[in-house]
Structure prediction request, 600 residues.
Amino acid sequence: MSASISKSRQRRIAAIARAEVDPSRFDRFEPITKGPVVAVLGLCALGGIAFFYLLVGKTIGLFRRK
Amino acid sequence: MDDQPAFDILIVGSGPSGVHAAQEATRQGAKVALLDIGHRDEHFPKIIPPLPFSHLRASDPNQREYFVGDPQDALDAQERAGAHLTPPRKYMIRDMESLFPLRTTDFLPLQSTSAGGLGVSWGANVFTLSARDLAKAGMPSDEMAEHYKNAAEEVGVSGRGDDDVGPLISSQIPLQPPLDLDTNARSILGTYEKSRAKLNRNGFMLGQSAMAILSQPIRDRRANPYRDMDFYSDEARSVYRPQFTLAALQRLENFHYLPQRLAFSFEETADGMARLKYKDVSNLTEGSIVARRLLLAAGAINSGRLVLQSRPQRGARLNLLTNSNIWIAAINLAMLGREARDDRYSLAQLTAMILPQGANQDYTIAQFYSYRSLLFFRMLSRIPLPPSLAVLLLRLIATSFTCVNVHFPDYPSKGKWIELGEGLHAHYEIPPEQQKANHAVEKTIVRCLRTLMCIPMGISRPAHGASIHYAGTLPFSDSDQPYTCDATGRLHGTRSVYVADGSTWKYLPAQGLTFTLMANARRVARQAVRSLTQ
Prediction:
């Protein structure tokens, strides 16, 4: 991983890894299963965000190695 | 130096090949010794409570130590060897770099230093090879049938054997009832039933994986407790590990376990015995052992290294085989927003065999995992979103998230080798025509996944060697060439040295090799014992 993504992103992922195994934050990592409609809508929204993020991110060089 | 043999059979390596060779040799009445580095882990079994994954996640304050360890280490290990190398399994490669140095820039194998070898993190998929595949790899199918059966009795295999992937497991293998599939796998199998004709036309067959996981107890092992902790613990000893066989062997009078020894070369004495030289890794002293027969079962890379160090020839290069593998992350649309049952086992649920028309006649194998107990953080580096948004996405798709691990067959070619220079040097490069063939099959698999309503979101391509399947360094050969073996596994040019691991395979099928390694090691061990009286 260290070769392909930035140090700051690595630090953020490591912080999430620590949070994910903290029992007091257990609920924040549980699956969301409130019915297919909510899931599909959420997925569409996230897909849109991902597309936008990639478009903008690539333009401003957000994924460049640091 | 004393040339009197201390043992009939001396085995190097305690992985799947080594322990099964040892078991067969002891059953034949031979006095057997097995030598390895033998690292063990006493720590994690004490700190992982015997509770379900979901319960531990919600309540255990110590879970970070066994689920994550150092997050950076966890992510680096994943890049190298997939997600199987969790903190409790990492002892398997402790001191690997110093004990088995390897110079390479394009091949990243794992070499085990533990009791149980690479079998410590075996994915437990069981395949038997067809007569055609066995012949292509160099093994006689008529002899293998009995050894497959004996290996199955030791390991314990559960599965169906009567579904569309039935050809991947011999009907002669005694099978326990199949394990319960998880919700996601049941959903995928349901979709498959509806689209079977179309998928089969594309050469895509899907069914339940045969697994070395117990659905019924045998001996001191229990049925799988469906706690989804199989990546982290050997609770109930339900998933087979070679160290279970090693522990049973240690109770026999005609078996001697010699840990903490690194074999570095062998020679034959004037009267045809084998003398193995080793270094004691606890005090760095050197020693040697004489045995009537030496069986190399240190894995394809290290058995190759041992032979090159013992019988060096200028410019000698050994072939090297490894299954290329990719991971396809997919969303099973039929499961979106649906809840999944909590009780499940963690390893592969379904297996697909793919043989597209017009392709070569060797299967490609895909295994379906439902992603849960490996946690979200391992996926974050692969999702091009801010990590917190990626977590939200993963929570939304958690129950439908499917990881498909695809293995391609491998063949010897000029750009795949190991050689001895200043240390061992490895190079691995797939020829363009093989790459093209793999790519064509990959496209077929992606198309079939869509038919299964599993929408591929991304493909990860680990480094060569990350499949942890290695073979081909000392292949079977009818001619008496150096660095090859005869059909019994005897190294050409020697009287007393046999190779009992995957080094001898001339071809590496996509079907996981581990179970066939066990059966072939038993076959070679029997041949070696027989040779004592000839």
